[in-house]
Design goal:
Elements lengths: L7 H52 L3 H11 L4 E4 L12 H13 L5 E9 L5 H7 L1 H8 L15 E9 L5 E9 L7 H39 L14 H46 L6 H25 L8 E3 L1 H14 L3 E5 L5 E3 L1 H18 L3 E8 L3 E7 L34 H11 L3 E6 L5 E8 L8
Parallel strand pairs: 6-8
Antiparallel strand pairs: 1-4, 2-3, 3-4, 5-7, 8-9, 9-11, 10-11
Helix pairs in contact: 1-3, 1-6, 6-7, 7-8, 8-11, 9-10, 10-11
Amino acid sequence: MSLLPRSLFGQIVLALVTGLVVAHVVGAWLMVDERARFGERLRGEYAAQRIAGLISLLDGTVPEERTRVVRALSVPPTRLSLDEPWRAGADVSPDAEAFLRRVARELEQPVELQVLSIRRAPPRSEERRSFDRPEERRKLERPHAPRGEGHEGPRHLVLVSAQARLADGAVLTFRQALPEAPGDWPLRVLGLLALLAVVVALLSGWAVRRLTRPLSSLADAADGLARDLDQPPLPEKGPQEVVRAARSFNAMQRALKTYLETRAQALAGVSHDLRLPLTRLRLRLEQLPEGAARAAIERDLEEMDDMISGTLDYLRAGSDTEQAVKLNLVALIESLAEDADAAGAKVSLHGTANPVTAKPQGLRRCLANLIDNARRYGGGEVDVTLADTPGSVEIRIEDRGPGIPPGDRERVFEPYFRLEASRARHTGGAGLGLAIARAVARAHGGDVTLAAREGGGTVAVVTLPRRQGRDSA
């Protein structure tokens, strides 16, 4: 099962939110990385400027005063000494060479320089503890720590040991403490980015919903078009594409309504024009003597009349101008049961239902066709069951006949389709009964379906939706 949303709104919002999240994650990573790099450069440049300034100052100081100046300047984060000899075995690592280049750039006069070591101070070393004293730490942190991050102090110290040979040959040894980049994340900035992502996602969702809502209205209008051609037209407002779609849908609705009105007028004319020749034939048939030929012609005329009536009923089903009223289903089915009893069938009614809003003659024709089918092909016993729910009414019409194969349960609703094996042509009419029943049910917003009955036979299920506000008791 796919976890992706199926609606257009969900897919657009998912794409927008995913893009925002990816963009913010990448941006946050780049920001933190650049912050660390910038802090490293800043600390390195500061240390190089400080060391270069001390070397230049001491190089220009007379030897008699140099010891006193060294003692005064030997404070964290820098320790100075003039007592150590020039050492062999200088550090030539890339970090050492980079530090030397930075110091050399800041010197006023070139001097000989070498880096002895660059290392981290052990957590409990004397050097570390000396910088952990509150007064020493404040001196160390103030020039280095970015605003808002110095209150916790550096987690580790990087100690740089180096020597410089002054102009008079004196050796200045210095040890510089560099705090490492802080390990904490810029939570305030990341929180603002997250808040920005949430706000943009909400605004995007609102904008997408506003743009896709007309599509939902269009789908609802299309679903209701078959049930009610007189429904209000869609509002023609919104984006240009939505306006064009709404305008085209309204034009289609008007064209369908005009077509159906024209068809109703044509049906009335066809009904009149076809029945007049049939009436003349019957009048002329009365002048013929009794016999087999006359009886055969009478049967043909009767069959033609039934076919015309059935075809006109099918074409009118769901498109007549009959008004919907509140209808008592129990009374209607009891009336149909009496008609079926007169034809030799036994109809049993089970259950009850509240009144439903429907077109009386259309619904009567629908249920009469289904009960008549069950009477003809179900052995004469018919069970009608009513089931009432808050949203719809279900009418189940069961027979005990041979049943309908699963592959033909939809085909029997096609006009003029007949099952030759189980429904003889001389008893089956024109093959329009089920087509008329479904057309009427769908005109009411419902449907007719067929299923197999447990124990043998067929079940015709009529579903009629309740119209809110009209079917309340």
